[in-house]
Amino acid sequence: MKKVFIAGAGMTKFGELWEQDLRSLMVAAAADALESSRLGIDEIDAIYVANMGGSSFAGQDHLGSLLATELGHYVPAYRIEAACASGGLAVNTAWHALSAGLYRNVLVVGAEKMSDVSGGDVTKGLARAADDEYEAYFGATFPSLYAMMARAYMHEHNADRSDLAAVSVKNHNHGSLNPKAQFPREITQEDVLNAAMVSDPLGLLDCSPVSDGAAAVVLSTKVTSVRIAASQVSTGSIRLHDRPSLTSIDATKRAAAAAYKQAGISVPDISLAEVHDCFSIAELIALEDLGFAKPGDASKLIKDGTVYRDGTVPVNTSGGLKACGHPVGATGVKQIVELYEQITGAAGKRQLKKDISFGLAHNVGGSGGTAVVTIVEHV
Amino acid sequence: MKKVFIAGAGMTKFGELWEQDLRSLMVAAAADALESSRLGIDEIDAIYVANMGGSSFAGQDHLGSLLATELGHYVPAYRIEAACASGGLAVNTAWHALSAGLYRNVLVVGAEKMSDVSGGDVTKGLARAADDEYEAYFGATFPSLYAMMARAYMHEHNADRSDLAAVSVKNHNHGSLNPKAQFPREITQEDVLNAAMVSDPLGLLDCSPVSDGAAAVVLSTKVTSVRIAASQVSTGSIRLHDRPSLTSIDATKRAAAAAYKQAGISVPDISLAEVHDCFSIAELIALEDLGFAKPGDASKLIKDGTVYRDGTVPVNTSGGLKACGHPVGATGVKQIVELYEQITGAAGKRQLKKDISFGLAHNVGGSGGTAVVTIVEHV
């Protein structure tokens, strides 16, 4: 098996990008990553596109071929989908082909264009990430699924809404330094607690936004300073009600255990993480499932500063899904972009001052139906 | 790189299956392939789902996780999409991971449920396989894109509608022996020429139907009698009007050349083929692009019996997309199922009497935006 490295990374701004469509977003991120990699398009052996809602939100499938067409580069092209975990899964799939030595350099582009359809249609499209017949059909949209997880968490761990709000406050603090973030500004705990209620106990500022955007990485078997030390996927029940716990995502636990084993490291070796904060509750659960905190203790890591940018394990320095935005197919790739930029000193105003040996990306599909954990190593 | 074998294959009936939904189709095909492989579900290391229109036709994405849930087997699960080439591409993607030695046995399920939405919505959903903004938006649906190819072919090669009709007559002849075919009955050239016109020169019986169905294979690094000798993908312009020729699909030519090279064989070594006859014209073009006939000569192979089931290179013994049916995500997997069943003597009434050394499957996405060529070897 060949070792796999990151040769370049790039992304568009995330936000409501009225001047851009799905194809222009894909092309822009691809060009940015290619420029960063200093590879020519002719050196790219295959294209992987991560996207969930091309059909639901943009009336377009077959995005591998579409991107190959726009780039004028007719190599094998793949579209990989696992709802909001599409990005992480595409990186994993590309990593397989590179590991096998079948391709030398590949371009992975995650993209989503969500703002061209109505809010109702976005909610309906996103519900297809859960079990449509058993959940969405009965009104359980994504905010309500995560609200049930939040309610259970608050009950089980004697937590309150301020524990949830702390996640959003931190991620907006981080995102305020990211010019590509959809909401590059700070918010207060009061803002979160007073925001309009979406699905009790989750208010508007507990929820990641509807976003347009794309992110891309060039993966290569040629040695660079950033290696993919582990790439692991697991699944769990797509239906929340069939899950063994409402306050833990078993797919994350399995993927994380496999990833730590593959990288030959343990939790304390991780000095930077991007985790899937689609809702505030999701980051608390992620920090616990990934082993950073014991069940019920995740919010302590926020309160004591551990996961802030000057802490020992900064989490979501990009701003996370909450402040940076969540174009669903792009998110898992954007997480890798953030790790790459922080490790290579390309993170601009949000550059961390410390050396990072291992960074972790955690990407979830649906309410936990898929989880992908990627560990990158500074070599 | 590990060698990859087919350990088992199965499929549902194709047709308008009013009693079945997308999930029950996937599960039925998976169970059929697992039974054929004599492997237990616990021996499956990953799941690959090929599907195009989960979102458009069935209101469900995240099908990898959904199938893992229905099987109660929470391994890595992938959904691969390249329009009607999703099935071939999923086999290719699974083959990458097996080649790398990352998984030992994987389940690949192709599925589509198309009959639960209106005909107009099917046409609209399918148009997302082409360039929605540059083609479908201006009324160029799939029958009309292929009709333009047919018109160009007839002009260039002095062919007529009977040359096209011969494809449908042959494939219904073959399909009449396949109990899983959507239309297991013969038709005459008169039937084809007198059928309602869909998009001139393509009549109703020049077109593959709207279908429900699923097909599955178990791929393994454990030696069996059927090896995947080559799996190659290429892309071409997703837009017909940007293609170098209207009478040839360059993606097919590139994928075929790479596949013959990878298998170390040439065209005469192929003794059985399943090719992508989404429209009658598509099979003529495929036979030429794959090297079985010179440009303009494909229909001679039908007239002289070469590609009939008692000829030297039977083509579409399953009945092809035309008679067996075309649940788009399932088609590329079904082609591999047919090759496997013919090679292992499991093809029932349609079993060929000869030994098959090499079989070829040719799967196209859109009007030629993606092509996948798989060569299987009887070892």
From TrEMBL, chains A, B:
Q: What is this protein called?
A: 3-ketoacyl-CoA thiolase
So what EC number does this one have? 2.3.1.16
Matching entries from InterPro entries are given as: Thiolase, Thiolase-like, Thiolase_C_2, Thiolase_N
Gene3D superfamilies recorded for this chain? Answer: 3.40.47.10
The primary gene name is fadA
Keyword entries, A-Z: Acyltransferase, Transferase
For molecular function, the Gene Ontology terms on record are: acetyl-CoA C-acyltransferase activity
- Which intervals hold domain Thiolase C-terminal? 239-377
Thiolase N-terminal domain segment(s): 4-221
What organism does this protein naturally occur in?
A: candidate division WS6 bacterium OLB20
Pfam families the UniProt entry points to:
Thiolase_C_1, Thiolase_N
